[in-house]
Amino acid sequence: MPQPHSTHWGSFLGEVTAAGLRVTPRAADPEPSPLLRNVPAAVDHAARVRRPTVRRGWWEDGPGPDDRRGRDGFVEVGWDEVLDRLAGELARVRDAHGPEGVYGGSYGWASAGRFHHAQSQVHRFLNLAVGGYVRSVGDYSGAAAQVVLRHVLGPSELVSKGTVTWDQVATHTDTVLAFGGMNLKNSAVGAGGISAHVERAAMTAAARRGAVFVNIGPLRSDLPDGIGARWLSVPPGSDTALMLGLLHTLVTEDLHDRDFLARYSVGWDSLAEYLWDKDAGWAAAITGVPAGEIRELARRAAGGRTLVTVAQSLQRAEFGEQPVWAAVALAAALGQIGLPGGGFCYGLGSIGHYGRTRVAVPIAAVPQGRNRIDLSIPVARVADMLLHPGKPYDVDGRRSTYPHVRFAYWVGGNPFHHHQDLGRLSRAVRRLDTFVVHEPVWTATARHADVVLPATWTIERDDIGASAFDPVMTAMHRLVDPPGEARDDYAIFAALAERLGAGPAFTEGRDARAWLEWLYARIAKGLADEGLPAPSFDEFWAAGELELPQVEDRGGIIGAFRADPVGHPLPTPSGRIELFSETVAAFGYADAPGHPVWLAPTEVPDPRHPLWLVANQPSTRLHSQLDFGVHSSAHKVNGREVARIHPADAATRGIADGDVVTLFNDRGACLAAAAVTDGVREGVVQLPTGAWFAPLDPAAEHPFCVHGNPNVLTRDRGTSSLAQGCTGQHTTVQLARHEGPAPPVRAHEPPV
Q1: Most buried pick, 11, 460, 503, 504, via CB within 10 A?
Q2: Phi-psi region of 192 (alpha: psi -120 to 50; beta: other; left: phi over 0)
Q3: Is 410 a catalytic residue?
Q4: How many Cβ atoms from other residues are within 10 Å of residue 749's Cβ?
Q5: Which helix (H) or strand (E) is 730 found in, with range?
Q6: For residue 107, what pLDDT is reported?
Q7: How far apart are CA 547 and CA 526, in angstroms?
Q8: How many angstroms separate the CA atoms of 476 and 474, rounded?
Q9: pLDDT digits (tens, 9 = 90+) for 104-158
Q10: In 8-101, where do the E strands start and end?
């Protein structure tokens, strides 16, 4: 009988048949994600980790920095053996170096379930059994925006989600200035699951009403076909210059909303003074958009309800704080922030939960306990931390120092996918004493670990799928048995906690089922508090899903601020939109001054590396998850990831569709299959992230990935001293046709 389940990219029914696991999208989803086609491949795939496996050098020689990490052999051992050894090593590090010696690495995309949530599980374990850990703050997708928005508008969770909705766009918006586009492959995914994909329908409805969508970026596919989008093909990293040119036109033609700026913002005079020489001609020289088109676009934006959006891709680049801040300034000058379907929205179209209203009851989470130490690093600075313990660095007005981490515990993430400069990351993890991962499959991260504990995947366990921005909560029924000796993260941590004397504190006497009932009881209480029916857990589990109430679509805190800026001030120092921030200015950062500015990229195409590389999110998988799945594999060419290049760039290099090409710079190289298309800007090559890192020589300082992972090429440096976010979206490369036989791709073959 089909049973309900959920992933970050959609809910579905799963049923085991004679032909294997059959997946059927949720009937009420108008546009199910094709990523669901990847799910059946997770059942007993050859890449699965089946038994606890330990790197030979660590098992035989003990913990310590080791250059063999990432290229050593592995041995399979029994659960009791490895857990005993691992508990002893954790106790050694804790007692000798304190919790400061342990880094709790995780990323939130492992499962849509609220109980088997990797971050919650590993952090709870480290807090209760070790006393704490060095944590990360921010995320790879949005760290720069998260920091700058907190200074300018308020926390991004409050000012970007539930403020501008897709219903508003469909009904009210006249013009969308989509900096970085709004690609449907990105909005198909949302943490905790998505019950209905509504983005295409909303954009189509707006277009039919006469709304104009302007896709501003180097990739035409960043807005969907069928809405008549206008494509302004600008070079990577030039968006802030275009925004400033638009602002200059608004000011010089007196199209800006003086009353709005005076009532709702601070710092406009400082920004206006900076704009005096940033006219349309200046912006045209940087962006390639003719000055007349820039002026025309500014006039159109001032002539109706205009929404300025900034994709997450823009701030995943050097000085990534600036386009976010400049976009806020542009929307403020238009005077439309807080109006339905107008103003500013960071991330709309970048993740599925942007553009939706909030659920009206709290979504329960596993309590993580208390971290007894207050040590954190920006998430994208992990290699810096491992390579340079004790080194000072600046972030968000603070001078901090990297701790000396000896033990990294990673659950629910693949840093050898989402981190930059993978050669540098390889060197960094070799500095550790011990590196432990829980993994269902043999990712590159698992291959670099000392201890690999086989973890179940979502379809092999019961859970509850829920999100603060989706109205449907799903009973995620276990669909298949796990392969080999795989265990849930919770079961692994419970066994380790018992060995460390923290078993009762960690489990609180509950098994996994009891924890699900505990989580559900808190959500049911929220329903009851709202005077709504709250079925029992057993009734919910049998029904398969439960609809949750949502708040009214009134624009969240931005709408309330627009209606009454005195009674509902923003959570900024002034209570208003900070176009100039005294706080940020006081930090004294040359790479992040007190108002939005144009800062030219420091790495640009040159004769050695004449092409921009755009390393964006893939359309065939979520990050690197299920890279071996049917949908992901079908879009590779002979097992290799596809790089899209402009016909002119292909012609000068003698490259045709399907050719194997090499992308390279001073950090590394990778192979890919060429796709020649005018959908990318000339001078740009696009290669998505997520192909599992497969170096030809794991010991090489500058790796050569035969599979097509662009993060062998990207730079590992922070966006600026303000946020220290990830800059993995852009770099520069050379491209050449690969001559001779191409090495085979064995990324999905286990090392043991």
Answers
A1: 11
A2: left
A3: no
A4: 12
A5: strand 730-737
A6: 80
A7: 13
A8: 6
A9: 998 878 899 999 999 999 999 999 999 999 999 999 999 999 999 999 999 999 9
A10: 10-17, 20-25, 53-55, 74-76
Q: Which residues, in sequence order, are CB contacts of 707 under 8 Å at separation 6+?
A: 639, 640, 641, 670, 671, 691, 692, 693, 694, 745, 747
Q: Which of 719, 717, 724, 736 is nearest to 665 (CA)?
A: 736
Q: Is the dihedral of CA 698, 703, 704, 709 positive or negative?
A: positive
Please give the Cα distance from 581 to 588 (Å, whole number): 12
300 CB-contact burial (10 Å; exposed 0-12 / middle 13-18 / buried 19+): middle
Rounded to 5 degrees, what are φ and ψ at 722? -70, -55
Local confidence band at 19 (pLDDT 50, 70, 90 cut-offs) = very high
Tokens 């007993």 correspond to 44
The per-residue pLDDT for range 63-114, each reduced to its tens digit, is 999 999 999 999 999 999 999 999 999 999 999 999 999 999 988 788 999 9
Distances (CA, A) of 691 to 48, 218, 551, 708: 17, 22, 39, 6
- 683-726, pLDDT tens digit by residue? 999 999 999 999 999 999 999 999 999 999 999 999 999 999 99
**Centroid of chain to Cα 220:** 21
State both tokens at 4: 């309900």
Are residues 641 and 688 in contact, defined by beta-carbon separation less than 8 angstroms? yes
Q: Which of 58, 103, 109, 274 is catalytic?
A: 109
Q: Quick count: other Cβ atoms within 10 Å of Cβ 734?
A: 19
Q: Are 246 and 216 in contact (CB under 8 A)?
A: no
- The C-alpha atoms of residue 199 and residue 309 are separated, in whole angstroms, by 14
pLDDT digits (tens, 9 = 90+) for 533-549: 999 999 999 999 999 99
Q: What single-letter amino acid sits at 351?
A: I
Return d(Cα 452, Cα 50) in angstroms, integer: 10
Angstrom distance (rounded) from CA 453 to CA 451: 6
Alpha helices in 544-645 (DSSP H): 556-563, 582-587, 630-634
> How far apart are the C-alpha atoms of 552 and 522, rounded to whole Å?
22
E strand intervals along 199-313 = 212-216, 230-232, 265-266, 306-310
Strand order in the sheet with 74-76: 74-76, 53-55, 451-454, 434-439, 407-411, 102-106
Residues 656, 659: Cα–Cα separation, whole Å: 6
Q: What are phi and psi of 252, to 5 degrees?
A: -70, -25
Residue among 103, 107, 282, 325 flagged as catalytic: 107
**Does residue 107 carry a catalytic annotation?**
yes
Give the pLDDT score at 132.
Answer: 98
Q: How many Å apart are CA 9 and CA 369, to the nearest integer? A: 29
Please check whether residue 617 is in contact with residue 185, taking contact to mean a CB–CB distance below 8 angstroms: yes
Pinpoint the alpha helices (H) of 564-682.
Answer: 582-587, 630-634, 647-652
Cα→Cα distances 625→220, 363, 414, Å: 25, 25, 9
pLDDT in the model for residue 32: 98
Using DSSP, state whether 259 is helix, strand or coil: helix
Q: Name the nearest CA neighbour of 426 among 734, 90, 63, 668.
A: 668
The alpha-helical segments, DSSP class H, found in 318-451 are 321-334, 382-387, 415-418, 422-429, 444-447
- At 106 the pLDDT is 87
- Give CA–CA dist 502/508, Å, rounded: 10
